[in-house]
Amino acid sequence: MYVHVAGEVTHTSIFEGRSLIEHYASRPADDVFEIHGNIYVGKVENVLPGMEAAFVDIGTPKSAVLYRSDVQFDPDEVETQGETPRIEDLLRAKQLIVCQVTKNPIAHKGARLTQEVSLAGRFVVLVPNSTTYGISKRLPDTERKRLRKILDRVRPQGHGIIVRTAAEGATAEEIERDVTRLADQWTRISELAAAQNRPGLVYREPAFAMRMIREEFNAEYRSVLIDDRALYEDLRDYVTAVAPELAERVEYYDAQAEQLSLFDRFHVTEQLAKALDRTVWLPSGGSLVIERTEALTVIDVNTGRNVGSSSLEETVLHNNLEAAEEIARQLRLRDIGGIIVIDFVDMDVKENRDRVVKVFREALARDKTRTQVFNISDLGLVEMTRKRIGEGLLESVAERCGTCSGRGLIVPEDLLG
């Protein structure tokens, strides 16, 4: 992991071997765009039964939205005519609620909220006032049994707990310390919320680089290099406190002494430039063309310079298999979310089509963001969804053109009179 601070923007790059697989550009919490994970006291502005949603004022310039599925309630306190309470039965205008941002505002859309608040720690996630109880499915069965015994002993009364993958090998004392810290943190948050009589922030998530260390950094990482002294000391102190065995892997990169910037030294800039291009070249000469629209992202697969050697079907299959692997990497690298439609090169043999989809799903399994992939349609298209949390890599580092507003076309002024 390479962390580069440039002015107010902190760039975090994650490499597997020599390949850039994730890159994030984060700015200081500004109470407008970087609010994911923050907890607020919100004031319900209006409830829309037809949309099964409510608009909530959380003290930011743009109202946030809370959907019916994200509303928490006590069944004993709700009187309804039907079996399932409707959103108008649960919320009313001017009501104050505690809520958490699950998705940053994107373009004209406000932030998305949930009333199921969660607090993430190094080893566990605390879900206050919940019966949630879970252990990461990525852990082996023997480890899950061991952790379940620890949880039964340390789980705080009235709160839910989810054990993270990072808890593998953690001692009972480490997990108990994590749970206790989160429970104390929730006590402070709930006290602040109870004392607040207007919309506003009650808990802010730490800086993005700190969250990445908290949620991602483990023994699989060889090192974390940071080129900002203050941030390095903060992250080193945090790792020393929660995972002392990994502290020596957090290193300071002195750009002045090295006479080369961190990103130039490890060829991050070069790979990042390619990640912002609409065309991606495949090893055998084929290409991907990635186009973002308001509704969805379209990826077109081309054979390009890949002419093969045996038969057309074999050439197309090889090209599509390369494309499947690369598309999975590009979705993760560019942080593309929402609906995605992929136009693979047409294949006549059904077994080949199934093989491409199978390889694609296997490649996506390495992506921690939830995805859903459908089989190739009659038109030869693969439709999929990838959970959208942020605005995406391109939007986070680039500005929309003021002349054409991002359309890529300039309408003649004389045509408009």
What would your notes on this structure say?
By secondary structure, the chain is an alpha+beta fold. Helix content is 30%, strand content 25%. It has 11 helices and 21 strands. The chain has a 6-stranded mixed sheet with strand order 16-17-18-19-21-20, with helices on one face. Helix 4 packs parallel to helix 5. 29% of the residues are buried.
Q: Total number of β-strand segments?
A: 21
Strand numbers in spatial order across the main sheet? 16-17-18-19-21-20
Beta-strand proportion: 25-35%
Shape: globular
Major sheet description: 6 strands, mixed
Protein structure class: alpha+beta
Low-confidence stretches: none
Mean of all residue-level pLDDT scores: 89
Q: Roughly how much helix do the residues carry, as a percent range? A: 25-40%
CA(first)-CA(last) distance: 54 Å
Q: State the oligomer.
A: single chain
Enumerate how many helices there are, as a single number. Answer: 11
What integer value in Å does the Rg equal? 24 Å
Short description:
The chain is α+β, with helices and mostly antiparallel strands. The protein is 30% helix and 25% strand.
From the structure above, extract its key features:
21 strands; 6-stranded mixed beta sheet
Chart the SSEs and their pairings:
Blueprint: E1 2-6, E2 9-16, E3 19-26, E4 39-48, E5 53-57, E6 64-67, H1 87-90, E7 96-103, E8 112-114, E9 119-120, E10 124-127, E11 133-135, H2 141-154, E12 160-163, H3 172-195, E13 200-203, H4 208-216, E14 224-226, H5 229-242, E15 250-252, H6 255-258, H7 262-265, H8 268-275, E16 279-281, E17 287-292, E18 296-302, H9 312-334, E19 338-343, H10 350-364, E20 371-373, E21 381-386, H11 393-397
Parallel strand pairs: 1-14, 6-8, 11-12, 14-15, 18-19
Antiparallel strand pairs: 1-2, 2-3, 4-5, 4-7, 4-13, 5-6, 7-8, 9-10, 10-12, 16-17, 17-18, 19-21, 20-21
Helix pairs in contact: 2-3, 4-5, 9-10
